[in-house]
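Hi everyone,

Forwarding the result from last night's run.
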Amino acid sequence: WLFPPEHNPRAICQNGILCSGAFIFHGITQTPFILLNQIFNFIPDDIVWDYDDFDDSNYLHWRNNINSDFIFLELFYGPIFTALSVSILFQICRLYGISLKNSIFVSFLYGFGTIAWAYSQTSLSTPPMIFFALLGFYFFKKWNINNFPKYLIFSGASFGFAFLTRPDAVYFIIPLFFFILYLIKSKSKKIKSLLGFIIPTFSAYGIYHLINFIKSGSSSPQSLNSINSLISASSSNPILLNIFGLYFSPGVGLFIFSPILLSVFIGFFDFYKKNKFESILLFGFMFMFSYTFGSGEYWHGLNAWGPRYILPLVPFLLIPIAFSIE
């Protein structure tokens, strides 16, 4: 798998501690779950499960052959971060003036009525990245309402954590940065607010490059190399066809697995009436993710619950739907 080098263009890792292909903050967020089970022994190592416990041979094999600390991680990591995302989405809806009842409904709709439910059962990096991205957007919204620079500091830090957890969070950061540049013209404390967002996000980017340099002696980000390989493979399929597949392809499309999201086409009109500029921001999020992951010939989907690379868009698509329900 590693050789010959022409089939494996990745740089050879020079530092054993950082050789994992996982991103740094993904591992950091998993560590407390492992420590919790080590300290409190919620799932002991000496338990052997049989068919009286679970009528599934694959699941039994997994439970009986993996360290109990990692079983605890797999069982609770995704659900907890998804539950936190549901809570933050509720708070965002309330900031937009959505009623308490409809905010609760839309938040639970995200948790139980979309592909977020399927991916909440995993320890993938997407659930925590969505949580940090939503948290960053929440603090951005607070800043836009109250004009306190501290909210942009929290927003920038949250998006920085999202980037270190999963680098495609940059597709939220880039449109939001230009949107902040536009909004900040009419705000007081312009420099303090702007630096509050720039410093944490650029620091995260610098940490990301530093880790790559320690790993392999090169600061070239692995994720950007992957994106370049995706784009280079796009010659055989038109990009619009690929984007159509991401959203509508039977068996793999986002709207096929989460049909409630189809109502976003109506919701955007209601959202636009009250939030003209922020509707452009949400469209920017969609464009960045769709263009990037629609630029390649190959994308994840056939062996999963829809295209998980655009899963981070799902809670943001539900915000316009909340306006239609309202």
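The longest helix spans residues 68-95.

Cheers,
N.
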